[in-house]
Amino acid sequence: MPAIVMVLIVGVLFYLGYRYYSGYLSRRVYALDDSRPTPAHTMRDGVDFIPTNKHVLFGHHFTSVAGAAPIVGPAIAVFWGWGPALLWVVAGTIFAAGVHDFGAIVVSVRHKAQSIGTLTREVVGTRARVLFLLIIFFLLTLVNAVFAVVIGNLFVANPEAVLPILLEIPLAIGIGQYIYRTRSAALVPSLIGVVVLYVTILLGQALPISLAGIAAEDGLLTERNIWVVLLFAYTFVASRIPVWVLLQPRDYINSHQLFIALGVIGLGVLVGWDTIVAPVVNDQAPADSPSWFPLLFVTIACGAISGFHSLVSSGTTSKQLDKESDARYVGYFGAVGEGSLALGSILACTAGIVATTADWHTAYSDFATASDGATSNFVNGVGHFAANLGVPEATAVVFAAVVVISFAATTMDTGVRLQRYIVQEIAEIVRIRAISRNLTLAGLIAVFIPLVLALLPGGGDAGYTFGVLWQLFGTTNQLTAGLALSVIAVWVTKNRRNPIAVLVPLVFLVVMTTWALIDNLITFVAESEWVLAPLDAIIFVLAVWLIVEAALALRRARGVAGDDADEPEPTELTER
């Protein structure tokens, strides 16, 4: 099947989901009302709270939630065939991610733009706040570990990409200094930064950087592991400096890269008229391969539904919403944008990397190979699409590697910083002041734990640990999404509106996540994985805790429905 056919079909489905389903959510579930002033107006301070044009806010929100995760997950999951992966991306985006991201913004806006953590305590209960902190702690730990491995693998496979990525740091700092000192808009400087970054790709091809000469062939000091250690040393420093110095200007550059990458994939597929050579369902997978049901639904988290989005939706986006009806465009359409990036990953790994079905089966011969080679497959696939547009293929591959590494590095920068906050907040609850009041010690803890996970040897098969860590990341991410959906469901129920649209993805996520955790736990115990098995068990306990808290909160909400409803049933939405 020509890949462009898949693009058109999915594009139509996403359009229908946005046009009709998000419209239903707007009117009947979230009851948007533009006559209500948003916190951006009522609490305006010109710093965090400021009314923002919905198109500008969409760009901020989309680039904040999108990254390497919707690339890596689908690139692994096509091991089971493109059919199951595509089905979950499309259905998850329309009926789960859109509901989750959209709802997190609305509920936060209705509660003075409070974060999902505060909302959990107020809407669900005090115990749920501790649950939230623990889930986020494990989520960020796994995020930082898996993305360090992603970047390390790409540096080893693409030494030509190392220099451009290194040069992006002083480039971003320079742009940040210019914007900060001149108080000018970020658009033009960041566009110039993208151009300069892509020019350095040619320099990287001339001066590839490899650590193979100082690394061991096996053991702890492999080339990838050395890169991982250096990455965490860098993120420790980056997490301590003000966000405007590096993180924000790098986000400006990467926001443009995100849209450029989507454009290259779409145009490359159209111009090259590439054919999908992967099977709809992989019937040649080894007999001992993990089952796609339920593991598919935690392997693809971002790109179908991601709990991390609720942190952004309630953390920054809700503070900038100009009017309530903008939440539909920013939240739901933002989820569609991430689903589109996941679609691009599926296309790259099923139509871009090879020309024949036999070659595809070689590239995805088993789950370990699929996991370890996922990002390289995406990079090579996007490189092929860029080559369709006339870019030399060697340069195109480096371009794709730079895009993925940039996304992953930004996620690590943010992840380690957020992890430090969580460590300090947990330490404050248990009254360990030596950690809660010491930024350096909290930062070291935030770096050390994921570093240890990233350096764990594979469970008998090199590379398999990455696939396992990715699934544990996915389960924790889905637990975060489940927690956010439970908050939304309780709020909707209290306001006497039908919560089915929220409860269906909530129940589905909890069932699939719990099932996947049990499945993995049995495997870890059988293989004597005494680091991963306890970690899986802890996350399983959190999943059960989430089920209990959500059930109790929903029961209370049904009992008091209408007592604290904050608005009547709407008759007309200001903007449809």
From TrEMBL:
Keywords: Cell membrane, Membrane, Transmembrane, Transmembrane helix. It is a multi-pass membrane protein. It is found in: Cell membrane. Its main location: membrane. The chain crosses the membrane at residues 6-21, 62-80, 86-109, 130-155, 161-180, 192-214, 226-247, 259-280, 292-312, 332-355, 396-418, 439-456, 468-493, 500-518, 530-548. Residues 3-350, 368-516 form the CstA N-terminal domain. Pfam families: CstA. InterPro entries: CstA (IPR051605), CstA_N (IPR003706). It comes from the Bacteria. Belongs to the peptide transporter carbon starvation (CstA) (TC 2.A.114) family. This is Carbon starvation protein A. It comes from Prauserella alba.
